Amino acid sequence: MNDQTTGDDEEVRIIKPPYQTPKGVHDILPVDHEYYTFIKKVVRHRLRQAGFRRISTPIFEFTEVFTRSIGSTSDIVSKEMYTFQDKKGRSLTLKPEGTAGVVRSYIENNMQVLPQPVELYYIEPHFRYDRPQKGRYRQFHQFGYEIIGESDPALDTQAIYLAYKILEDLGIAQLFTIQLNSIGCQTCRPQYLTILKDFYFGKERSLCAECKYRLDKNPLRLLDCKQEDCQILAQIAPKLADYLCEECKEYHADVKEFLGELKIQYIENPNLVRGLDYYTKTVFEFWDRTEGAQNAIGGGGRYDGLVELMGGQPTPACGFAAGMERIIANMKREKVRVPHKDDLHVFVAQLGKDAKKKCLPLIVELREAGIKTMGALGKGSIKVQMRLADKFRVPYTVIIGLTEVREGTAIIRDMKVGTQKTFPLEDVVEELIKIIGDENRDVYSPAEAIY
Ligand code: HAM
User: Fold this and answer.
1) Which residues contact 266 (CB under 8 A, 6 or more apart)?
2) I want to staple 302 with a disulfide (CB 3.0 to 4.6 A). Which of 235, 255, 268, 282 is the partner?
């Protein structure tokens, strides 16, 4: 997101600073933090409502956690992982996605003894050595959730429904279609893969270099290749839907029926396979209505074999994750404005050491009263301080100069109208509460909730 500014009118541009962020990673400046904070609030609200609890797994894990779960032939593992060795030569990797770590944690922390399903969510940075471009970064943030410990089409439906509701709360659900498919299970998929390979036999010359390689290692991925020639073949390739076992067929029909009950629209996409190897049965993605598969905003599905693959008891699961940078870009595109509480109420300006002595307790008192206050406690002239107050766009300024110190008063200036009035110093807090309005005070204190 290179268009970030501090939000100031005057942009200070430094030509070629000596130190810059590495390619594909960005600072999150205050103007964008408003979006991140809002998204986090919406995600927390929706998921808490549905009984999910938050989890954070480490930023790095043993590399094996990702290679085993995501699959060694996937793009993520074969090209995009930030892998390094620690001082003892152990291979570690910055997490490229959230599911593998959560599953590792589920097993390691013995969560199978908890009431099932265990419903967990996360809001975390992730890392992929992707080619940086619009919507594709090397550090990005995902919110995601996993429902581990039970298999039922109603749970898959819930995972899709929650994602839709969150996007709706964020004001962007209308921009996306839900693409839905079933990629079968260990019973029916192997037979289909043989049929798929047979279909491509003799057609290898029409495939891109990557698909030629995938044909042997991971043929399912041929179905969602973005290259034109590969897509033409994918369109006429045998469809997995025709080879699903009875159980998968019934399961998929139920997911669709339940989505219908919740009035969630979807598009059946027989070529949707997802880029991670752990999926079974239901897979889904949220696609931009105009850009299609490019830059999907989120995706997920069922992964019934993963817990066992990672060394746990056979345990079914499903989940979803979305990219927060892509969400923010779409919120901006839709001109969604987010509420924030960063605006100041009052700026306190002073002149001289005696005035400063009066200001310091006043600033503390104002803040305690829930009035967001900034004090100009430097040595600038009143004029310089007032210019600063203007730049911070505060609605009111309190001024204590030499006369006010002598008389025990303070001036309250309405910055918009340009009028001002003098009050006894001891009345200033009460007066400002009246002007700003009781309902606008920031009196929330997290500490009050401690028990
Ligand atoms: P994923 O489709 O690989 O799924 O990623 C989910 C979302 O993360 C993408 O749709 C996209 O919005 C965002 N994303 C991925 N890579 C980048 C990037 N380089 N830059 C910006 N955003 C990106 C998963 O990660 C699965 N773990 C989802 C899941 C959870 N499946 C089951 N449970």
Assistant:
1) 160, 177, 178, 179, 180, 256, 259, 284
2) 282
